[in-house]
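Quick one before lunch.
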Amino acid sequence: MKAYIVSLGCPKNLVDTEGLMTQLAKMGHFFTSEPKEAELILVNTCAFLQSAKQEAIDTIKKLAQWKKKGQCRYLIAAGCLPQRYKHKCPELLPEADAFIGVPQKFSPEPKTQNLEPRIKATPPWFAYVKIAEGCNNNCAYCVVPMIRGKLRTRKIKDIMSEVKLLANSGVKEIIYVAQDTTVYPNFPSLLRKTCRIRGVKWVRVMYAHPAHISNKLIRVMAAEKKIVKYLDLPIQHVNDRILKLMKRRYLRLELEKLISRIRREIPSLALRTSVIVGFPGEGEAEFNELLAFIKQVKFSRLGVFTYSREPGTPAYKMRGQVSGRTKQARLDRIMRAQARVSWEQNQKMIGTTIETIIERSAQGGYIGRTAMDAPDIDGTILVRSTKTLKPGQIVSVRVKKAKTYDLIGCLT
Ligand code: SF4
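Model of the iron/sulfur cluster complex:
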C-alpha cells in the first residue's frame, strides 16, 4: 500500500515516526510524498500542549479530504494524542479509522539493529537517536510522564549498534535525544564511546536537565573534539519560588554556578535554553527577574513558551493563573531582549572560523548549519562559494557578516 506519513511535534516524536515507517516498510508498504495518491495516511501526533493537540486535530481533519477526493482507504492517528485522549479520540476525530498510542518499546528493536538501518525521515547526514523514553521528573506543568510513562533507558550496546549502522550508512552527526538525556546512566561514557565510532563527525546533546549535569559530563564535552560545543539546557525559569512551584529541582544560585562552570570549562560553547512565561504565580517581579537574567547571562540561543494549562497536571489547579494577554506580552518582551543578545553574540562571530555542514544550494552559494546550531530550531549560515559543495559535506567557514539569527561567510 502507498503510505503518506506526517510527523508532528519534536525530534523525539520524529524518532517514533521513523520506527513506525520502518515497521510499515517491513510489512511491504512504501511511501509517497503526495497525500492524494496515498492509500494509507498516518499522522504521528504530539499532544504535549493544548496548541499541539489542536494542530494534530486540524491536520487529521484536513487530510480526511483525501478519503473522498483521493485514494485514501485508511486514515490513522498515532502517538501522543490517542495516548493522552484514549477515550475521547473517536469523538474528537470521527474521520480517523484507527488510533495507535505511543510505542511501548524502543524502535528499532535490538534484534533488527544488527541487520539493517531504520528508515530515517531526516536528511542523510544527521540522525536523532533516542536513548531513553519517559520521564520521572514530574515537573508540575508537564504531561509527558502521563503520556510517555516512567523513565526507561536503552542498553548502551544497542545504542552503539544503532549509531554504527547509521554511521555506515553515511550519517555524520548523531543527535542524542530523550525527555532528559542527562539522566541516562553514565552518559559521559556513552558520549565517549560514540566519538570512537568511525564516520561519526559531530555528536550533539539535546534536552539536558540542569539538575543532572555532572562535572564528568562537562569534562568529557570539553575534551572530546567530536562533541559539538553546543548544549541545550532548558532552564524554564530563574525565580526560586517559581522554580519550586514548577518542581524543577534546582534554584537560581545552582543554575548560576552551573552556567559559570560550563562556560569556564568550555569557553566557546553555544548555550541554548528555553523558558516558560506566565506560569501560575508569576507576577511582574518574577517575570522581570527572568528578563534581567536573560539579558545578563546572554544565552546564544533561546526559545520561549507561554505556559499552557494542561488538565491533569498539578499546575492546572494552582492559584494565580496568568491571563493569555499578559503571557503573550511577556513572551514578546523576552523575544525582543533575546533578539538584541543574539545580534550581539553573532557580531562577535565575525572573523572567526567555524565548522559547517552544507545542507542545500542557494543563490550565491550554499545554506549550511554550523556546529553551534541544531537542525530546525537554530540559525543557518549562507556560505559563499564558487566551488561545488555537496549536501552533507563539512567545511570550514570564515564568518564575514552577521544578522540577528543567521550568518554569512565564505570558505577558508
Ligand atoms: S523533565 Fe521535561 S519531560 Fe520530564 S517532566 Fe520535566 S518538562 Fe516534562
